Amino acid sequence: MSIRSIVIHPDPRLKKLCDPVPELSDEVRQLADDMLETMYDAPGVGLAAPQVGVLQRVIVADAIKDPDAAPQPMVMFNPEVVLSSDETNVYEEGCLSIPDQYAEVTRPAEVRVAWIDRDGNPREDEFAGLWATVLQHEIDHLDGKLFIDYLSAMKRQLMTRKSQKLKRERARA
Ligand code: K1U
Ligand code: ZN
Asked: Would you say 106 and 88 are in contact if contact means Cβ atoms under 8 Å apart?
């Protein structure tokens, strides 16, 4: 396993519609393992393949925030929200591609997600709380959508400028 570098906004790769994974291969399983290692190292509670520069529909997540709890790594290939609740939830979201910036986003409180697991089996399950928020945030990444796209144009511009500045500073360092 290895830690991959995380793409920082603004970057055209974060705005692209990602391709479905046609079939599970050693290469795509390796990508998922590397993404998990990258997510835990960051640290974060989720990561989508375009954030490591790969335009394929792969996400990983572990939305257990308690550092003393056992890890619950989740790998999803071709994840899809198939049902969303009318009830909504507001959560202060962050993004590893927009470091150190947070904003409240309203999303469905519960979602039913269909995906292909690491063994190639089709799966479907319901998620609530932080899991629901994180999975929606990650699936949005696969459609080229960032959490700042839910904010006003002014807030989005401000956060984009800050991220651009940070990206320039990191490139110089
Ligand atoms: O997709 C990403 O950029 C990862 C992002 C996921 C996310 C966080 C919060 C709400 C929705 C989606 C992150 O993991 S940001 C970092 C973060 O939230 C965190 C970091 C350390 C401990 C706990 C959480
Ligand atoms: Zn993100």
From this structure: yes
Nearest protein CA to atom 6 of ligand 1, as residue: 46
Ligand 1 centroid from CA 64, angstroms: 11
Give the residues across from 81 on adjacent strands: 113
Long-range contact pairs involving 165-169 (C-beta distance under 8 Å, separation at least 24): 166/8, 166/99, 166/100, 167/8, 167/9, 167/10
Residue numbers annotated as active site: 138
Q: Please list the residues that pair with 127 across neighbouring strands.
A: 111
| pLDDT tens-digit series, residues 82-132 | 999 999 999 999 999 999 999 999 999 999 999 999 999 999 999 999 999
140 lines ligand 1 (CB under 6 A): no
d(CA 61, CA 40): 9
Please state whether the peptide bond connecting residue 43 to the residue before it is cis, i.e. omega within 30 degrees of 0: yes
Half-sphere exposure of 7 (CA within 13 A, CB side): 21
Nearest in space to 61 (alpha carbons), one of 136, 2, 7: 136
Q: Using the 8-state DSSP alphabet, how is residue 64 labeled?
A: -
Distance 94 CA to ligand 1 centre (A): 5
